[in-house]
Known about the structure:
binds 2-phosphoglycolic acid; 218 residues; globular; alpha/beta; single chain
Amino acid sequence: MNVLKNYWELGSRVADIVEHVLALPEPKLILPTGSTPLSLYKELVNRQLDWSSVTTYNLDEYVDNTIQDQSYRYFMVENLFKHTNMDEDNIYFPGDTAVWPQMDYGIGVDLCLLGIGGNGHIAFNEPGSSFQSETRIVDLTEETIKDNSRFFPTIDDVPTQAVTMGLKSIMSSKKIVLMVSGEHKLNIMNVAMAGEVTESVPASILQNHKNVKIYYCE
Ligand code: PGA
């Protein structure tokens, strides 16, 4: 595990990894939303990198979301995509069912960036998700709905379902970087990375991946 001095250093160190991957021919990335990757996206925008041949797949998207500026597509456009020279045709979200087979079989993703939820979820693979899971619609747990309510006017506005890339799909990435920001995530991170590998803690599946790096800051 890499322990960083602060949130901005976390963004900068992970940006180094992304920059390296962007130099590959036709790189493919899986990207997260949430508060954790914001310093990374700011740093990537500042670096003004060449995204013209990059393909990105986002991990998840809400279903039946009525607050459009809380959609994950909106988040990505605002925080990253619109500041780069990305080809819009190379941006994929799992809300589009046509892209599911691509997400599940042999995308050949070079780098998957992840955050972790307070209950150990990765993407919206909530506790109990099968390690064999593929892209699908899921019900969000009460804990996740509560966690995400900070972004919505009221808790009743938080969607109760999402489309998420599955654990099997995530694990097929060549390299995975888990970003963890805040002491409140320390316990679940330790449980996931050093405890039992179990579907009750979805992130624990990462222990079975050969190329995972963890970046943590308080
Ligand atoms: P956060 O969410 O980055 O907003 O903490 C991470 C997650 O729930 O996967």
